Amino acid sequence: MRKREKIKLVFILMLGLISAGASAQSARTLIRKGNKLYEQKKFSEAEVQYRKAQAKNPKYKKSTFNLGDAVYQEKNYKGAENFFKNLVQQTKTHEYKAGAWYNLGNTLMQQKQYEKSISSYIQSLKQQPADMDAKYNLEYARKMLKKQKQQKKKQKQNKKNKNKKNQNKKNQNKKKNQNKNKQQPQNQKENQKKNSQKKQQQISPQEAQRILNALKNNEKNTLKKLERAKAKAKAAKAKANVINW
After folding, report:
1. How confident is the model over 104-114, as pLDDT tens digits?
2. Taken in order 93, 94, 96, 98, is the CA torsion positive or negative?
3. Of 69, 95, 105, 107, which sits with the fewest C-beta atoms within 10 Å of its C-beta?
4. How many CA atoms does the CB half-sphere of 217 hold within 13 Å?
5. How many CB atoms lie within 10 A of CB 36?
6. Given CA atoms 58, 60, 64, 70 in this order, what sign does their dihedral have?
7. Which of the residue ranges 59-73, 85-99, 127-141, 175-189 would you say has the lowest mean pLDDT?
8. pLDDT at 202
9. Alpha carbon 41 to its chain's center
10. Higher pLDDT, 129 or 183
11. Domains of the chain
């Protein structure tokens, strides 16, 4: 089954009968020029002609209707919205009112105002219940609204998770800083103790010289003792040899 076009504008080509007069005739001619340009996809040029027609005869709703279409095609959806809002208030026939509500729904759809577009399509269907395009766009808008709500819910949850993650990180950093600040005095005490012990272990040059002299004296005394011991040993040996003779 071929997919229906998502958004299809109602565009007035048949001008019908309007009040006679030079201004009305001129407005009709300008609208025809605008329609030709519109069909050629020269929307900005078509807009100029429709505005001229509207200036000639402000009460002529067809110029406003097609002007809204041209502005819509230029992707000026807010501008088109204003034209169609005026039309739904001013038009009385079911056909034009249905078309104005339908096109208003399209401009709101393009602006992702899905709830409002749904209301517009419903109003259009009240005027023309058998309009399949309005029915299709109504269901499409409902689908997009559901998707939009899901995305917003997901974004909200992601933001909540991100905030929670940031808060946890902030708490961890705070705790880390607290532990660091708590550790600093203890480290200072330990460093002071180590420095004190190191200082105690260090000796002055005078003390070092004294110790060295003591070691030398001890060494001399030791040597003297060894020499005495050797001398005694020699004397004892000589004595022993005399007795043997």
Report:
1. 999 999 999 99
2. positive
3. 95
4. 6
5. 13
6. negative
7. 175-189
8. 65
9. 37
10. 129
11. 22-147 (1.25.40.10)
Burial group, residue 26, by CB count within 10 angstroms (0-12, 13-18, 19+): middle
Distance CA 221, CA 148 (A): 103
**Considering the entire predicted model, what is its pTM?**
0.62
- Compute φ and ψ for 176, nearest 5 degrees: -60, -45
For the segment 109-126, the average pLDDT, to the nearest whole number, is 97
User: Rounded to an integer, what distance in angstroms lies between the CA atom of residue 166 and that of residue 174?
Assistant: 12
> CA-CA distance, 34 to 50, in Å (whole number)?
6
Q: Are 43 and 70 in contact (CB under 8 A)?
A: yes
The percent of the chain in helix, strand and coil, each rounded to the nearest 5, is 80, 0, 20
R_g of the chain, CA atoms, integer Å: 52
Q: Which of 73, 63, 55 is nearest to 96 (CA)?
A: 63
Compute how many other C-beta atoms are within 10 angstroms of the C-beta atom of residue 136.
17
Over the stretch 184-238, which tens digit does the pLDDT of each residue have?
Answer: 777 777 777 777 666 656 667 777 787 778 777 777 777 777 777 777 777 666 5
Cβ-contact 62, 43 below 8 angstroms? no
Burial call 59-81: b when 16+ CB within 10 Å, e when fewer:
ebbbbbbbbbbbbbbeebbebbb
**Tell me, what amino acid is at 199?**
K
CA-CA-CA-CA dihedral for 54, 57, 60, 62, to nearest 10 = -40
More confident residue, 19 or 85: 85
| 20 DSSP 8-state letter | -
